[in-house]
Amino acid sequence: MLKDQLRDFIDSVTERGHVCNDDVAMLQDEILVEGIASRLEAESLLALDRIVTAVEGWGTVLTRLVADFVIWKRAPRGVVSNDDALWLATLLEVSGPSPNAMSIAYAILDEAGHVDVALLDFIMRGRQQARLSQIAA
Fold it and tell me: Half-sphere exposure (CA, 13 Å, Cβ side) for 11?
């Protein structure tokens, strides 16, 4: 279930089409002070990221929130299980490996004690796509 405050935040930002600095501050200082609590919350924020423009600080906050949830709030702590890696890689892949999606994957890779290969595969596909985009440009 999505918290009412988070649902209202997502509705408001979606309507405006942009995440501003005040939104970022409200999300981290008021709405998700304790971090993301469920997969649904993570999925909702990642969906929001795909449909709006945002200030630079948004990506940093989104990355920290998702990484903390996957690494420290899911069991076993400090390890990204196969199930979580598949779930997250699928979510991050939805619109292709965006800069925020890649940032989240790299943050998890840097901080977790063990990361399942599904997330590593996402990173490799993202790097390959970035190389191909540079070649085509």
Answer: 7
Q: Alpha-carbon distance 85 to 87, whole Å?
A: 5
Please tell me the distance from the alpha carbon of residue 73 to that of residue 126, in angstroms, as a whole number: 26
The CA distance from 100 to 51, in Å, is 13
Q: Where are the alpha helices (DSSP H) in 17-116?
A: 21-26, 39-51, 56-72, 82-93, 99-111
pLDDT digits (tens, 9 = 90+) for 41-80: 999 999 999 999 999 999 999 999 999 999 999 999 999 9
pTM above 0.85, yes or no: yes
* 3-class DSSP assignment, residue 3: coil
